[in-house]
Amino acid sequence: MSSSTAPARLTVLAGPTAVGKGTVSADVRTRYPQVWLSVSATTRAPRPGEVDGVHYLFVTPEEFDRMVDAGEMLEWAVVHGRNRYGTPRRPVEEKLAAGVPVLLEIDLQGARQVREATQAAGLEALFVFLAPPSFDELVRRLVGRGTEDEEERTRRLETARVELACENEFDVTIVNDDVHRATDELVSVMGVGRSAPVAG
Ligand code: 5GP
Question: What is the CATH number of the domain that holds 84?
Fold first, then answer.
């Protein structure tokens, strides 16, 4: 049973590359503004349409090093063997302290770090695995996105194979067969009420 008076908590959404984590979190942002989406720092270059400070904080490798060294990252990882991605710690802590439900959309290595950090701190966190309807569907989505070259696609599919095998580490699995449905299930397991207007 979900309740609007449930305490705010940290939810981690992970899953294989191209499963649609970004689409589901964008849908959360649009339809459930009461959930705060963490903005990750990354050393990768922006894709067309991506806005600094909205989709990511696009930082130099030197700035990323500085943030890590200063203890500013809740977690960070090298994803697909190439770029670094990390969750700035302070905004997450501030939102949780203010009673706002927080969603992190991160990779599996990051999810493991958050599990260790929250266990060590005695904090409650919910770990959600977003799964594709099938591996073939995952390949179709990755090729269809068309934003990566052949070498990068191969690299990401290798990562995806490993990540799919890690589903049992998570509290909940949500199958991304339909974006709105998956989003609704996600916010339901987060304990967030359906008070926002449903758009599009
Ligand atoms: P993309 O380059 O396609 O935006 O993201 C690549 C991968 O990086 C995705 O699997 C995404 O979940 C992951 N990612 C994004 N932000 C973070 C973060 O802050 N930490 C970690 N560990 N992974 C992240």
Answer: 3.40.50.300
pLDDT tens track for 137-190: 888 887 776 777 888 888 878 888 888 889 999 999 999 999 999 999 999 999
Atom of ligand 1 nearest to the CA of 21: 12
Q: In the prediction, which pLDDT does 8 show?
A: 64
For residue 85, is it within any domain?
yes
Note whether residue 69 is domain-resident.
yes
- Answer whether residue 4 is part of any domain: no
- Domain limits at 55? 10-190
**Is residue 3, in this structure, part of any structural domain at all?**
no
What six digits make up the tokens of 21? Answer: 């984590």
> Are the C-beta atoms of residues 59 and 44 closer than 8 Å to each other?
no
**Which residue has a Cα nearest atom 22 of ligand 1?**
110
Record the pTM.
0.88
Report CA(92)–ligand 1 centroid distance (Å).
16
Long-range contacts of 45-53 (CB under 8 A, 24+ apart): 47/147
